[in-house]
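Bug #2210: token dump truncated for HAMP domain-containing histidine kinase?
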Amino acid sequence: MTATLHLPAADADAADFGRQLGSLRHQLQLARLTPDTHRQTRQLAALDAGLRVLTARADLQRLPHELQPLPTERLEPWPLLQQAWQELAPMAALLGVQAQFRPHADPRALGALYGSGRWLRRLLSECIESAMVNAPGRPIEMEHRPVGSHTQIVLLGTRAFTTDHDGPARALAEAIARAHGGDLRIEQDEDTRDLIVELPTGAPFHAGESSAQLQAARFAQDLAALQERARRRAGAPLGDER
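Reproduced locally. Full output below:
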């Protein structure tokens, strides 16, 4: 079987560009299920990587139009993460990747997110997909951390966003997080590399919030992150931070 890549016209609008690329990605995923040679498998993998780049670029262009004004759907963070994983389950099966969920607290007691459910799932999907593609066969360990008025969803020890192909996908994920008043960052030391998605909870985000409020919140988040890393180095059990 030979895969042929037909890219959308250069003047296609962003929405049409995204739809066509989505269809191509689906076709490539189906092609992976058929018996094939090693060379064809490598070709399909390369095409899939290219499509990930183009899809992210197209969606990055239309993101501002879809999130102005920001929707105010009420969303539970832990189910949102599990939904994002389920959307990628077929790819995970092909790549031999399993998920290990580590909720840090009772999910029922966590603060709700507000925003676009579709785009927040996309944010998490981009992170998970990059981790799977860059480390096939390696389990993905995901942890939830409530931090004051924010929530953190963490991919522990991940290789997400480590290649040149990941640039547009990371830019898209970061833009979605910023639009919801949060951020995406990598925390790395000599032992581990964690990807952290941090988002505000409890009320819809308003872009006009004062910089002082945001700086105070970030200080509290950074302090909590340092305490968490110190606890992990000390080998304390989850939830025991005395």
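Output looks complete on our side. The radius of gyration is 19 Å. Marking as cannot-reproduce; reopen if the truncation happens again.
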